[in-house]
Amino acid sequence: MKNIALFSLVMLFVISGCSPVLNQAEPTLTPIPTITNTPTLTPIPTITNTPTLTPTATRTPLPAISPLVEQLTPGQVVMHPFTENNPYVFYSYFPRSAVREKNIVVGVWPHGGNMFNNDYEYHKDQAKNTISWLKDYSEKYKIPLVVVAIPRVEQLYVHTIHPGTFSTTNEMLSRPDLKLIDAVWNQYIPSIKEAGFVTNDKVLMMGMSSPGIFTHRFAILHPELIQAAWECAEAAAPLPASEMNGTQLDYPIGIRNLETLTGKAFDLETYLKIPQMICVGENDNKENNDPTNSEIFPGWHWQYIKTNFGKTNPERVKFFYDYLVSIGTPAEFRLYKGVGHEITDEMMNDAFQFLVSHSQP
Fold first, then answer.
1. DSSP β-bridge partners for residue 207
2. Which residues contact 163 (CB under 8 A, 6 or more apart)?
3. Core-most of 47, 154, 259, 348, by most CB within 10 Å?
4. Residues pairing with 334 in the sheet
5. Angle between the 345-357 and 120-141 helix axes, to the nearest 10 degrees?
6. How many CB atoms lie within 10 A of CB 325?
7. pLDDT tens for residues 329-358?
């Protein structure tokens, strides 16, 4: 009976899902130990000397151009109309490159049309065309320019200051040298001074062919007004002399009768101080471009020049240069190889460089 009772008790525990109590201690899970020295990420150090971009320097603004300078309309060709006292129109160009200069010397190109034309409008157009291509050199060399529209008519070769211009009663054809003086010294130079520039009362005068003849003769007539002169492909007269080898030299091959014509004696001392560049193209020999002709040298003068100064234009121009040097004039000479009766960029750069080098009083 005892055995049956014990068996029954065991079965009861099995059926009820209970396990008998064992005397061993129930095992426990060992907790994961805490790592007290866990490594940490080292923070990226702050760069205290981080290079920074250097700020662009602030450019000091250029001072504003004064209204008086603006009145010269820098960078534009300006037409100056005829006045009550002067029937000639002239054109000016004030370079933008010179608006902040202090000292200014004016350049003058005495222009006329390259053909005879009784219509003055033609000569105005030719003068405007001339200053339009000269303005690039004006900008480059900071020289304001004036181009005076001087007529060339069938009756008289005015823009060579022909001897007939001293006696004609036609105001349009009379004394172009005095009309140029009015345009430059009575009108344009005062406007330069009014704008605040310091300017010499002498000018840099230049010209090729007939404008070169004008430049040459103007320097003879008014040497006190010329700072320096560039004369290219022009007739080799007048000489600053009253006679040569026993022959009396009247204007326009010399200056013997100059006081009678103008009322003013020739000033040799002042003339000898003018730096001059004399130039000509090697091939400037065409008869139709010969500046030594009866239109420019009336009577026997033209034949005398060809006989005594040289048979070709380059020979005569070189003769003129040699004569100037012989009497003490500070002159230079250029012969341009392969060049005819024309203007080249090389010539113009030589001209402006020469004039600029002599632009200081």
1. 231
2. 251, 252, 261, 298
3. 348
4. 279
5. 70
6. 14
7. 999 999 999 999 999 999 999 999 999 999
